[in-house]
Amino acid sequence: EEERRVRANAREYNEKFQYASNCIKTSKYNIVTFLPVNLFEQFQEVANTYFLFLLILQLIPQISSLSWFTTIVPLVLVLTITAVKDATDDYFRHKSDNQVNNRQSQVLIGGVLRQEQWMNVRVGDIIKLENNQFVAADLLLLCSSEPHGLCYIETAELDGETNMKVRQAIPVTSELGDTSKLARFDGEVICEPPNNKLDKFGGTLYWKENKYPLSNQNMLLRGCVLRNTEWCFGLVIFAGPDTKLMQNSGRTKFKRTSIDRLMNTLVLWVCGRWIPGIPGSGPVGALMSSPCPQIFGFLVCMGVILAIGNAIWEHEVGVCFQIYLPWDEGVHSAFFSGFLSFWSYIIILNTVVPISLYVSVEVIRLGHSYFINWDKKMYCAKRRTPAEARTTTLNEELGQVEYIFSDKTGTLTQNIMVFSKCSVNGHSYGDVQDMLGHKAELGERPEPVDFSFNPLADPRFQFWDPSLLEAVKLGDPHVHEFFRLLSLCHTVMSEEKSEGELYYKAQSPDEGALVTAARNFGFVFRSRTPKTITVHELGRAITYQLLAILDFNNIRKRMSVIVRNPEGKIRLYCKGADTILLERLHPVNQDLTNVTTDHLNEYAGEGLRTLVLAYKDLEESYYEDWSERLHRAGSAPEAPREKMMDASRSMGNGFSYQEKLSSSKLTSVLEAIAGEYALVINGHSLAHALEADMEVEFLETACACKAVICCRVTPLQKAQVVELVKKYKKAVTLAIGDGANDVSMIKTAHIGVGISGQEGIQAVLASDYSFSQFKFLQRLLLVHGRWSYLRMCKFLCYFFYKNFAFTMVHFWFGFFCGFSAQTVYDQYFITLYNIVYTSLPVLAMGVFDQDVPEQRSMEYPKLYEPGQLNLLFNKREFFICIAQGIYTSVLMFFIPYGVFADATRDDGAQLADYQSF
Amino acid sequence: DGHPSGGVGVPGGGGAVGGGGGGGGGGGGGAVKTRKPDNTAFKQQRLPAWQPILTAGTVLPAFFIIGLIFIPIGIGIFVTSNNIREYEIDYTGTEPSSPCNKCLNVSWDSMPPCTCTINFTLEHSFESNVFMYYGLSNFYQNHRRYVKSRDDSQLNGDNGSLLNPSKECEPYRTNEDKPIAPCGAIANSMFNDTLELYRIDNDTRTPITLIKKGIAWWTDKNVKFRNPTGDGNNLTALFQGTTKPVNWPKPVYMLDSEPDNNGFINEDFIVWMRTAALPTFRKLYRLIERKNNLQPTLQAGKYSLDIAYNYPVHSFDGRKRMILSTISWMGGKNPFLGIAYITVGSICFFLGVVLLIIHHKYGNRNTSADIPN
Questions:
Q1: Per-domain boundaries in chain A
Q2: Which of B3, B145, B280 shows the shortest C-beta gap to A325?
Q3: Which of B271, B267, B286, B282 is nearest to B130 (CA)?
Q4: Residue A912 reports pLDDT greater than 90
């Protein structure tokens, strides 16, 4: 599909494109296909196939050294449990599909509104939505009950953000207020094909021989909820599986866990690091995969030795022994017999890596995850959220983390923004002063400024410098302009429950803090429509005409509005990062710029976040010209559009004000960083440092330092830094963050930790572990991670030890039974050895073992080091385990051998018979 | 809403997110739990635990105690084992001087059987009951294909299996289109030398009574092995329609004259069917009971062993032996166990002494350095 053409109210026309209907299907099976499909999927797992292969070997009578039930019992058990789990999952998917597909919506058919089920909605239909209803498909908003075709939506389902967002119909359609007009609407939309970009949409509406550009601002996406809007009409553009929501939802495919990958390594004999749950390679893999080729190699080795033994035996002894034991039919040479016995021994020796290993590892990981979820000490009472292990496969990696990548705002800091200082026209306000006008020390704060003159003030806001309020009252035009800008240039939505009781809904906490500050100083933002903003300036209601909003994004790092005040003057207000704004200032203000920069640096030195505000008066003609260009660019691709907006702004502007926000207390971690050598690098330089030829050098420099602080970096750069460390250092990386801009970093690192804080839940959704306070990270790593690593290592050692001790007995017995792959133990014993007899001790140790109490591991971080150096389970440790197992098996075989070889019962009967032995 | 909102999440500016990224979401992210975790010992990982810490105070006594317990046990077992009388004769006949050398290359069906006599002298008298064994070497009764080559349900008297033996018995399942009873390689290779013992007293040969019943395990004789059932007790009729194993000179229902020791429940047969675990093994052949308390069962003196040599072992370098042995409370002669106990006990004792010396010499230096870290 190159582009999508949709004509309103024309089902026949749209049908010829065969767009997907609005019926969604997330389930994988139905009753008939369940068994074959599910089994097929399960046998795509190499582990399962491997055991199936063993089973087939066991069914060949010439080879079978163990009867088939020794493998089939555990295999069927595992398959059944997985199948039951899949079946229940799918049942619930069926149920939810049905429920969603059968939701009712009002569809305009033939000029009449009809109730239809969601699944019967077609592309090109016009449907009516009412307040608090879910949007049924991706719609082009045509008109709504609110003026100017405005409507509000909540997108929590899509991106986790709980604030409301505005969508607006394009002006021509916003007048189609009633059904009769809508029924006659026959515009045609040509737009991009279905994709998963939630924040982009490009298309054009052709109606009455006019072209109208469409953007994401005109779209209502499936999964959103209509809020504060009585009704609205929308044209279905994408339906069902084509909607952006469904395009984004992960394919419901068979999840490959690390266990499977371990097994894959084992079976395919691929050396090297295998890749666990999250992208990138992990040391669980290293932890477990490194010995696995050896195990497999070992298996083959033993098999070959015994097979050669068999061939020799058959050649030397077996040939002569044929008077009592003739060779099987079809076996004509000792060599072939040896070949068969190789497979027989593979079957017997495979108990060193039984299915129960994979099951046990899963159980242990699950147990560890539950311990994380249950930990009372990682429960945040304030937000009522416990820690959550969202993946079960990475617990032991938590004990091996070497590099931590942390987002600062909202993660290290709590992301509560407060307006604390500002510098207006070269004058700095906001220092806490005592009676004598000296800067006060912290702790002896005087009374905060009294905002009682302003009935609309927010009582929670506090400010300690009365001079700023005096400047407002005295009518300093610069200060007025400063607060006017704050009250106009933002995307905050206001909600007035009752007269004077204002609530602001801000997308980011700093915007909220700024608008609140302006509100308390008498510039109260009351309400907004798409075309106007109403502000109470010192008690006087003024309505500004909103000509344009150029929203904030990470590339431009600034936000601007263009407004026309009641006098008719057009002005551009802009706020943004100092680096960006200062270079766009008019050179006339050089002196002021210098003073302001000094102030900025002073503020920044105190650890405050800074922003620069600026404005520029625009000529009517200039604006006309600009908006014309913007309009034309609207339907063109993104890039030139961005450029044009830049061009308009770079004309420079008057003077700069500034203002700051205090971030709340930093945690000890940051202080620790500041103490030692630290490399500080900003986004600009980082871009150079990350170039191909520089990156190794950068990494070496960075690693020589105790800590590296990268400031002003884009989400992509964050991920690149993580990738860099992953690429050159074979170390476990952990990324922790709370916002959408950390998602890429969280996904790139071996372990991603999300803080369920203020900036939505996107980070949490992408993460492997989540909790609500940064300080819990210490406990997660030092206590849970360390224990998990320790337990997993001990478990693996113990498990391999016991299975080698068990299995190698067959190897020794081979020398006494003509290498015929006769087992020493009874078959039931072999079957149950791993499932029943020895499963609980290893499991208990793997789940519960604690070497030191949790307090100790918190007190002595040095205890964490063995994990980082991977001391507890590496090749050496593994071979020690195996050696011990082999030693045990020698004892287990030769002591009974010595005892039983000539033993008789006290009634004279021989004891050295096979069954007794 | 029921949408599976799996990997929804679009970072503002950063596009390329490495890899599949499907890793997250182990559990359904839907239901957000807001409840506080329970404060139980289990969930908070505060279960009571005990961790043994090895110190000189625990290790040294343990070594000494093990040593002191094991050494006497070992000595006791060793002495008991040494008091057991055992006499062994190899009658394979590979040496040209051996009387049985002439029989070395017999075949199964040589009629009449090759016989030979070996004279021997017992230096000491055998006081209590004497057990007579035959021993085979280099005979792989534990070979996988050998072990499985039997049909247990046939041996248990199942009439269906009698006429249609299990496939495991191949190639000794049928002969000339008749099912073999008992089938399989084990039964087919049953030991069939006949051994007789004579006491030579002033050139007169007195036969010694050999009891052939009571040599099999009770469970084997009464549970595992049963003759087929049918009308009457005539085994010949019950085994109608089957044929004898290829190597056997006579069918299974002619193994013995006594009806409760004939057919599948013949004890020699049962003993043979209990396969040995090792290629060198001995099996109980006959019992010699002590007649009265005044005389030893076998006095010191001259004896002769008459062998009906039917069982060929030379082709695979096998050896045949006859063993006479008495039994103590711990079974037959078995020095290994006693030696093993003595060895382990001595090692423990020795280690204990070494550690004690080390502890005495260096132990005081850093007693306080145990705990930290």
A1: 4-22+121-249, 422-430+449-636
A2: B145
A3: B286
A4: no
Q: How far apart, in whole angstroms, are the C-alpha atoms of residue A489 and residue A510?
A: 13
Verify whether the Cβ–Cβ distance A910 to B282 is below 8 Å. Answer: yes
Q: Which residues of A touch B275 (CB under 8 A)?
A: 913-915
Reported as a single tens digit per residue, the pLDDT across A558-583 is 788 888 888 888 888 888 777 777 77
Nearest in space to A742 (alpha carbons), one of A773, A768, A767: A767
Structure tokens belonging to residue B62? 């343990």
Enumerate the residues of chain A whose CB falls inside 8 A of the CB of residue B73. none
Q: Up-side HSE of residue A156: CA atoms within 13 Å toward CB?
A: 11
pLDDT digits (tens, 9 = 90+) for A269-285: 322 333 333 223 333 44
Give yes or no: residues B288 and B347 share one domain: no
Give the residue from B278, B324, B333, B371 with the most A CB atoms within 10 Å of its CB, the best one to mutate. Answer: B278
Residue B243 domain-assigned?
yes
How near does any CA of chain B get to the CA of A820, in Å? 5
Q: What is the pLDDT of residue B348?
A: 93
Give the contacts of A917 (CB within 8 A, at least 6 positions apart). A824, A896, A900, B277, B278
Is A407 catalytic? The answer is yes
Q: Chain A partners of B217 at a C-beta cutoff of 8 Å?
A: 909
- What range does the domain containing B349 cover? 63-84+336-361
For domain A422-430+449-636, give its CATH number from 1.10.1040.10, 1.10.10.10, 3.10.129.10, 3.40.1110.10. Answer: 3.40.1110.10
- The whole-model pTM stands at 0.72
The whole-chain average pLDDT of chain A stands at 75
Token code pair at residue A284: 């669980």
* pLDDT interval class at A384 (50, 70, 90): confident
DSSP string computed for B141-190? TT-HHHHT-S-HHHHTT-HHHHHS--GGGTTSSEETTEEBSS-SHHHHT-
Alpha helices by DSSP H, listed for A269-290, are 283-289
Q: How close is the nearest chain A Cα to the Cα of B46, in Å?
A: 9
How far is A577 from chain B, CA to nearest CA, in Å?
Answer: 16
The closest alpha carbon to A738, from A713, A712, A762, belongs to A762
CA angle A58, A64, A65 (to 5 degrees): 120
Find the CB nearest B21 among A252, A741, A747.
A747
Does the residue B296 lie in any domain?
A: yes
Chain B partners within 8 Å of A96 (Cβ): 2-4
Contact assessment for residue A530 and residue A580, using Cβ atoms and an 8 Å cutoff? no
pLDDT tens per residue across span A79-131 = 888 888 888 888 888 888 888 888 888 888 877 888 888 888 888 888 888 88
Q: Where are the alpha helices (DSSP H) in A475-508?
A: 477-488
Q: Which of A375, A407, A742, A768 is catalytic?
A: A407
- What's residue A870's pLDDT? 74
**Same-domain check for residues B164 and B67:** no
| Token pair for A689 | 């440092």
Characterize A229-239 residue by residue with b for buried, 16 or more Cβ atoms within 10 angstroms of its Cβ, and e for exposed.
bebbbbbbbbb
CB contact under 8 Å between A748 and B17, yes or no, is yes
Q: Which residues of B touch A197 (CB under 8 A)?
A: 10
Nearest by CB to A913, which of B146, B275, B317?
Answer: B275
Q: What is the pLDDT at residue A675?
A: 40
For residue A810, give Cα distances in angstroms to A805, A807, A828, B148.
Answer: 10, 6, 15, 17
Residues B127 and B77 in one domain: no
Choose among A95, A820, A898: nearest Cβ to B143: A820
Inspect the interface and report whether the beta carbons of B13 and A714 lie closer than 8 Å: yes
Q: Which residues of A touch B35 (CB under 8 A)?
A: 384, 386
d(CA A78, CA A82): 6
- Contacting B residues, span 307-336, partner chain A, CB-CB under 8 Å: 312, 315-317, 325, 327-334, 336
